[in-house]
Write a structure and sequence with these properties.
binds glutamic acid; 48% helix; 21 helices; Arc Repressor Mutant, subunit A
């Protein structure tokens, strides 16, 4: 028999922005589809009118777009599918697998209290499950409100989860649950089944918190006479305290990671490692490598711990490996006018020199400022330590003289000139290196000093060194 095509979906509820957990679910679905040559769909589960907000839908779509997790059309909104749900509810009323339940909220509350007083488990009374048609009609004509409940058949419900293995539930443990509320609106478990079937979903990949919904959904598939998809539930993401990930630890929205300047590829690489690894030491993946290596059977069962240090490491590695042009495009994607006055070639040089020193695009922007304009701030500790008195000014003046006469402006020559100056003045090279760096960059650390000087160019270096003579030493005694 031919296997059905792979079709997966990500089905967020727009009751908040896309966070790490949701993004990871979307990524694993996307990877599964890409790896198997299938299709990835997006469905917005916006039936909860009070909590769903269009603004969140926009944010979720924007974040998925930024992550590059492209979905196939059509993009489905549950709020537009009321007709389909109504038809399916009627089908189930007609085929006798559901019934109208006229129990009032009061009656249910009383039954619950009674069960609790006896210390037993509460089960929804099946009062209306098998009432004669006549009686049903009478109640309907009397205008009694009702919910629609699924008649849970005897037996067991089994499924094989791709990650958690065989799962079996005794149907006796499942109440005749509601598929349509008294106002006619369908419930979550019901809409998901109708939609997954309509969309031809072959594999449902979602958070582990939905495992307990799966038997209920399987019973709905059975009642509707639809073939069920396969299931894979992903482990929870935990905070460093091994509790559910909270805002404190990074349950932050994807937008926040974007605003901090992480690249989408680095974030995806970090997300893919949250609960999955290829079974080798490899931890750094390009998008293509993720697609090639991804194997849902290698997803772990135990919760995946969010580890910010690891995110930083992965982000740093991605930045170091990215081409200068990729980095420039990524920065300009967020800030179109960034350093437009400078030549691309110069910017590329700067990025090449500096990309190994940061982990986010924002850091890179911050730490490269002095390549584009003269520093206005100078590290006061370095100034106090390395430029104590006017003797340093003498050294700098001599170095300026040599630089002015330099035949070639190349790192090796600038290095030789500095050492020659130090020798003339009978001091160690370090006595010059630190103040020179401070003067040209304002910083105590950075890339190799002579590469830095070469890149800044003669005019800029001499201008900054001269300026520094008027600024330092900070105290004059
Ligand atoms: N809308 C559900 C959620 O956001 C997901 C439903 C599903 O994947 O089946 O948790």
């Amino acid at each position: 028999m031919n296997k059905p095509p792979i079709r997966v979906r990500f089905a967020p509820s727009p009751t908040g922005q896309l966070h790490l957990g949701g993004a990871r679910t979307a990524l694993f679905n996307w990877l599964y589809a890409q790896h198997h040559g299938g299709e990835f769909f997006l469905r917005i589960e916006d039936t909860d009118r009070e909590r769903s907000k269009e603004e969140y839908t926009g944010q979720i779509i924007g974040s998925l777009d930024w992550l590059g997790l492209q979905w196939s059309e059509p993009l489905l909104f549950q709020s537009e599918r009321t007709g389909a749900y109504k038809n399916a509810i009627h089908k189930l009323l007609d085929n006798g697998s559901t019934y109208r339940c006229f129990l009032t909220r009061d009656e249910l509350d009383r039954a619950r209290e009674k069960a609790q007083a006896k210390g037993g488990d509460f089960r929804v009374p099946k009062t209306y499950r098998d009432i004669p048609l006549q009686e049903q009609k009478r109640l309907l004509n009397a205008g009694q409100s009702f919910t629609v409940r699924l008649k849970i058949p005897p037996g067991k419900t089994l499924f094989k989860d791709h990650i958690y293995g065989d799962i079996s539930v005794n149907n006796e443990e499942i109440d005749d649950f509601i598929i349509a509320r008294s106002d006619g609106t369908p419930t979550y478990n019901f809409t998901v089944v109708v939609d997954d079937y309509t969309m031809g979903i072959s594999h449902v990949i979602r958070g582990e918190d939905h495992i307990s919904n799966t038997p209920k959904q399987l019973l709905i598939y059975e009642a509707l006479g639809y073939p069920a998809p396969e299931f894979a539930h992903l482990p929870m993401i935990l905070g460093p305290d091994k509790k559910r990930l909270s805002k404190r630890h990074g349950a932050a929205g994807i937008q926040e990671f974007r605003d901090t300047g992480y690249s989408a590829d680095a974030l995806l690489n970090y997300l893919v490692m949250l609960g999955w690894n290829p079974g080798t030491e490899k931890e750094l993946f390009t998008r293509e490598e993720m697609v090639a290596h991804f194997d849902i059977r290698k997803v772990q069962k135990k919760g995946a711990v969010y580890d910010e240090k690891k995110l930083h490491w992965i982000a740093g590695q991605h930045l170091a490996r990215a081409s200068e042009d990729e980095i420039l495009q990524a920065i300009r994607g967020e800030e179109p006018n960034w350093q437009r006055h400078a030549k691309d070639e110069y910017i590329h040089h700067v990025l090449k020199l500096m990309k190994i020193r940061g982990k986010t695009l924002n850091e890179l922007k911050d730490m490269t400022g002095y390549f584009f304009s003269d520093p206005l701030k100078f590290d006061p500790n370095t100034a106090a330590k390395r430029w104590k008195d006017k003797s340093v000014n003498k050294l700098i003046e001599k170095y300026i003289q040599r630089l002015e006469n330099a035949a070639k402006w190349a790192a090796a020559d600038l290095d030789a000139a500095l050492r020659a100056t130090a020798e003339d003045m009978a001091v160690s090279a370090a006595k010059l290196i630190h103040p020179v760096r401070l003067a040209v960059s304002g910083q105590s650390q950075g890339p190799g000093l002579f590469e830095l000087l070469e890149l800044l160019g003669k005019m800029t270096c001499i201008r900054r060194l001269r300026k520094s003579l008027t600024i330092f030493p900070l105290t004059n005694d």
